[in-house]
Design a protein that fits this description.
alpha/beta, five-stranded mixed beta barrel, 273 residues, Rossmann fold
Length: 273
Amino acid sequence: MNKKTEQAIKVIRTYTELTPKAGIILGSGLGAFADTLDDKVKIPTEKIPFYPKSTVEGHQGFLVFGTHKGVPLLAVQGRTHYYEGYPIRDVIFVVRIMQALGIAVLMVTNAAGGVNSRFTPGDLMLITDQVNFLFNNPLMGKEEYEGPRFPDMSDAYSNEFFEPVEKIALERNIALKRGVLWISSGPSYETAAEIKMIQKFGGDAASMSTAPEVTVAKHAGMKVVGISCITNYATGISSDKLSHSEVTETAELVKEKFLSLVSGIIENIFRSL
């Protein structure tokens, strides 16, 4: 680890000695899962050296250590986005913290707009791949962490988990979709023309996060599971105007379904890793 990560870990260890087995980054309006952890310790990210502050509604700003179904976890309750003005390496700082803690598997979640015409608000989507349209890669620059200089991304979202996750969803009566996540910088929503382009290039949902964290997780050797909450129709698919309040409201409506799926993944997949 580099000096920034080392200092962050030292502060974290003044709060907890828990060694998490898995990490989960909680997207807009999806932070409630962190509060369900047993024996939880909530660390304000403002107390952690070099940790970028989240400024977006629905992202509280805590690292939450605890257990779920006996599995030790680190839940990120408030991610940092590239559009907030931080350097890309600050955006993924939490994944480097996870790497230093020895976390082997990461679950990423987000709110996303439905680009695929078969998706409706309230759907959950298993992310099978991503398109990073940020025009910025967090691995650019000087090498500071262990990992390959040219990491393979052919299995960005670990396909060994696809069928097990879908089985869990089926058992819990959750109609889980599959799709490719398209990431752009934001903070403005995409135009209707941009959504048409995304459709033509194979995107199923559009978001403003996740790709940087996944890229660094794969560089660090982690396995990755991704879940998107489809919170709205993308621009042009519906005549409705888009707003962040719609995103958080829809996330709240599907909270129980989301919590059930995440719980099942941790209990039935992460426990055995």
